[in-house]
């Protein structure tokens, strides 16, 4: 397996831990606001072989507390099981970012005890994913991933990027009802300064939700989950 990137230190990618971040390439979604456009398109040059990553992790024992794996969409990577197993065998907890489109891969990782934390994006109400995915059955796969994560992930969070016109009070409340009882729901303000997968997305309109709107969304979602936060 070949990885596109290795960020040596992060304080924000694995909640509560100092981690490094591994980047896979390629994504099966087409989120207009995606900030990792090159990674999502699979155009990012491959840079690290698994053996290099293993050597790096061995050299950071005692300094790093975990490994975050992100993308692109990491569950598309054929070597994801081997990667997680190798990282776990070195004693590092694994955090996986996912769009939730491949519940079978998540099930395999969970059943083998190869992930410690899953962060799944929920971009919109599950029946309203046409701006993000061309898969007509995506809502079924997303629902399966949500159920599985809530039932069997050691730790997890669901996240929504709050960008107009995709996210508003109705959509956030619908998402919160879908994950009712979840341990953690994170609302992420959209960062307008970044370049997007759809370069026009930022230019056509201002997709930013301002702090008072974000607080309103949090107030709407909070009753349905154990913890709701803006990050
Ligand atoms: S934001 Fe969307 S397109 Fe970008 S990597 Fe995540 S799921 Fe893929």
Note down, in words, how this protein is organized.
By secondary structure, this protein is α/β, with parallel strands linked by helices. It has one domain (2-230): Alpha-Beta Barrel (TIM Barrel). It contains 8 helices and 10 strands. It has helices spanning 37-41, 50-59, 80-89, 103-111, 138-152, 169-178, 201-204, 211-221, and strands spanning 2-3, 5-14, 17-23, 48-49, 66-70, 94-98, 117-121, 156-162, 185-189, 228-230. The strands form 2 sheets. An 8-stranded mixed sheet has the order 2-3-5-6-7-8-9-10. A two-stranded antiparallel ribbon has the order 1-4. Helix 4 packs parallel to helix 5 and helix 6 runs parallel beside helix 8 (211-221). The model has no long low-confidence stretch (mean pLDDT 94). The site of iron/sulfur cluster has 11 residues, from loops.
Strand content: 15-25%
Classified in CATH, the superfamily is Aldolase class I
Major sheet size, sense and barrel closure: 8 strands, mixed
Q: Looking across the biggest beta sheet, what order are the strands in?
A: 2-3-5-6-7-8-9-10
Mean pLDDT: 94
- Helix content bin: 25-40%
**Uncertain stretches of 5 or more adjacent residues:** none
Structural class: alpha/beta
The total domain count is: 1
Shape: globular
Output the number of helix runs: 8
H/E element sequence: EEEHEHEHEHEHEHEHHE
**CATH topology (fold) name:** TIM Barrel
**Computed Rg:** 17 Å
């Amino acid at each position: 397996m070949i990885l596109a990137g290795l960020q040596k230190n992060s304080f924000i990618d694995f909640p509560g831990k100092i981690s490094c971040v591994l980047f896979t390439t390629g994504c099966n979604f087409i989120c207009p606001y995606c900030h990792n456009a090159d990674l999502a398109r699979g155009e990012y040059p491959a840079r690290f072989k698994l053996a290099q990553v293993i050597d790096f992790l061995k050299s950071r024992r005692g300094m790093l507390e975990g490994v975050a794996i992100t993308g692109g969409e990491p569950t598309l990577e054929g070597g994801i099981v081997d990667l997680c197993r190798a990282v776990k065998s070195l004693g590092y907890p694994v955090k996986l970012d996912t769009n939730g489109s491949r519940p079978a891969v998540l099930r395999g990782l969970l059943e083998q005890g190869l992930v410690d934390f899953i962060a799944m994006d929920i971009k919109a109400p599950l029946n309203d994913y046409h701006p993000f995915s061309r898969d007509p059955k995506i809502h079924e796969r997303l629902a399966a991933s949500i159920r599985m994560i809530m039932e069997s992930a050691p730790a997890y969070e669901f996240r929504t990027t709050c960008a107009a016109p995709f996210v508003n009070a109705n959509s956030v409340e619908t998402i919160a009802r879908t994950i009712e009882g979840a341990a953690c729901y994170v609302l992420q303000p959209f960062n307008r300064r970044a370049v997007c997968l759809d370069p026009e997305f930022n230019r056509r309109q201002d997709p930013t939700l301002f702090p008072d709107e974000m607080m309103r969304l949090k107030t709407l979602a909070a009753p349905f989950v154990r913890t709701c936060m803006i990050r």
